[in-house]
Amino acid sequence: MPQAAIEVENLVKRYAGPGGGVLAVDGVNLRVAQGELFGLLGPNGAGKSTTIGVCTTRVRPTSGRIRVGGVDVAAEPPRARAGMGVVTQFRALDRGATAWENLYFHCRYFGWPAAASRRRADELLAQFQLADRRDATPEAFSGGMAQRLQIARAVAHRPRVLFLDEPTAGLDPQSRMAVWDLVRGLRAEGMTVLLTTHYIEEAERLCDQVAIVDHGKILVCDTPARLKQSTGAGAVARVSVEQTGAELEARLRALPGVTEVEPTAEGYRLLAHAREGLAPAVAAAAQGFGLRDFSLHEPSLETIFIHLTGRELRE
Amino acid sequence: MSTTETLAAPPQAPAAPARPSYARAFWGLMLRDARLLRRDLFSFVVRTIMNPLFFVFIFTDIMPKIGQNFSGVGAANFATILVPGLVAIAILFQGIMAVAMPLSIELSGTHEIEDRLMAPLPIAWTAFEKIFFSVFQSILAALVVFPMVYFIPATPVHVQVASWWLLAVVIVLSSFTAGALGLTIGTLVKPQQIGMIFAVVVTPIIFLGCVYYPWALLGRVKWLQIATLANPLVYVSEGLRAALTPAVPHMPAWAFLAALVLSAAGFSWWGIAGFRRRVIN
Predict the structure, then answer these.
(1) pLDDT > 90 in chain A, percent
(2) For site-directed labelling of A183, which of A8, A268, B39, B153 has its Cα 20 to 30 A away?
């Protein structure tokens, strides 16, 4: 087996605290191949950021073995950091420094000589479309610009592995797309990327591999396409009714092609083999229960998340 | 994105990174701090000179003119007593102004320090860089304050450097103590507690720091003389007193040198440990 860019074996992290502390990560195993764009998808508090924190040497693992770029992160943090770029959740740019200086000094921290660092800072500003903001301090930046600069800075020393913790949280849709394009561009050049997200769409559209995380455990890990197929459902229906009950649930369950019926706040969620004929069948079955709304969807990673946890992913 | 060809390393290079040069990373951190200080030089100078400027103006220029004089000690007038004391404050308070306050804010609020924490050198080195850089700031502060306390007073100031070596050693050790104290406070204190720190830590340090009187004279208030030994500013003031105004009574050199070495080492250890605790979970 070729060496993976990121290897996490049996990672456990327990934060000290009253009552035995908090078990943030509970036996996570990950293998991210060179050049792969890997997403950790899960709700807030699932342990995604802690996992990234351990990989990036900022959280000490309680147990487990973690290698990034072949370097044991717990044994040799500085050497591990030399090979990775990191964008944290905090918009943590150096505010007293200009955009150009943020990039220039980053290169200097990684041992680059002055001339090469200057060239690299110029080049990155151009590539990340920040050249006109060269001498501005990041305080004046929009969220999207700040995030572009953060990503530019993270890759400035040409790391092989890039960690992005919630890279598009709080960004407007247009800036989110711009970040996706940047990340795709980096991947196209062979950069390995591990990102965390609680946006279904981000995991589905951006990532090669997605691990769904909840309560510190990886529930399932595969390509987005295969994950979506894994429920066996061809369609997901949301049914909203005035009156729920055992009778209606039994009726829905008995419909041809329906594989699963889960109660929700407004009614039920149905997984079915195909969407064909589902709408009239549900309408007929719900006769007398006050059908309010019915919608049909393609199965998404949300479907699999609900399927695995019984909860919706949204906070 | 139009051109992205040079963003990442080529994928066919899976070799693990070599051991990075800690010294170069450290130098990079120093360069960054130097650039920001240079940009901020005006406010650095203003915050450094305001307190001593007004102090010497009122107490050594105006007060004598309006007949409200402090007597001084023996042959040394009050202006001479103040020279080492006000330089001592300038040195020690750079540690709080230049290290503790920004660090407290960076650690708790802005997270600006994140990128430096990801630099390829041990976290303890990153913490030590804070102390090391502030040594230069403290020395700079001393150089800025000295001419003011020397030239402003209406009465003549008697400064006499018996040993430049002693002066240099005292200034460097004091500056290390200042930076290390600043690191310790910065890692212990939340930004919203800074006002409180000024009230309950900074004020007693200054007034009980042998700035306005030599330590020897506190012999008349024995309990206070002993209590002040816990104050690092006392050793900075007394060290500078011995180096700049040896005619004024001062502690023996072995005493303030030992105390300064111990404070610098102790606060460095405490501050670096606190820094690690704050940035690594």
Answers:
(1) 33
(2) A8
Domain that holds residue A256: 232-298
Q: How many domains does chain A have?
A: 2
What are residue B40's phi and psi, to 5 degrees? -100, 15
Query: Distance, in angstroms, between A21 CA and closest chain B CA?
Result: 13
Same domain, A149 and A167: yes
pLDDT score recorded for residue B9: 46
Whether the CB of B7 is below 8 Å from some CB of chain A: the reply is yes
Q: Find the angle CA(A39)-CA(A45)-CA(A46) to the nearest 5 degrees.
A: 45
* Segment A246-263, tens digit of pLDDT: 888 888 888 888 888 888
The string of pLDDT tens digits covering residues A38-66 is: 999 988 888 888 999 999 999 999 999 99
Q: Same domain for A17 and A83?
A: yes
Is residue A79 one of the residues assigned to a domain? Answer: yes
Q: Are A5 and A161 in contact (CB under 8 A)?
A: yes
A120 within a domain of the structure (yes/no): no
B contact residues 158-187, partner A, Cβ 8 Å cutoff: none
> Is A57 within the bounds of a domain?
yes
- ipTM of the assembly? 0.83
Q: What is the CATH number of the domain that holds A260?
A: 3.30.70.920
Name B115's bridge partners. Answer: none
What is the helix (H) or strand (E) element at residue B63, kind and residue range?
helix B63-65
**CA–CA dist B54, B149 (Å, integer):** 10
pLDDT at B17 (0 to 100): 63
B residues 14..43 contacting A (CB < 8 A): 14-22, 24-25, 27-29, 31-32, 35-36, 39-40
User: pLDDT per residue over B131-161, tens digit each?
Assistant: 999 999 999 989 988 888 888 887 788 888 8
Residues on chain A touching B29 (C-beta within 8 angstroms): 109
Q: pLDDT tens, B226-236?
A: 999 999 999 99
Residue A126 in any domain: the answer is no
| CATH of residue A27 | 3.40.50.300
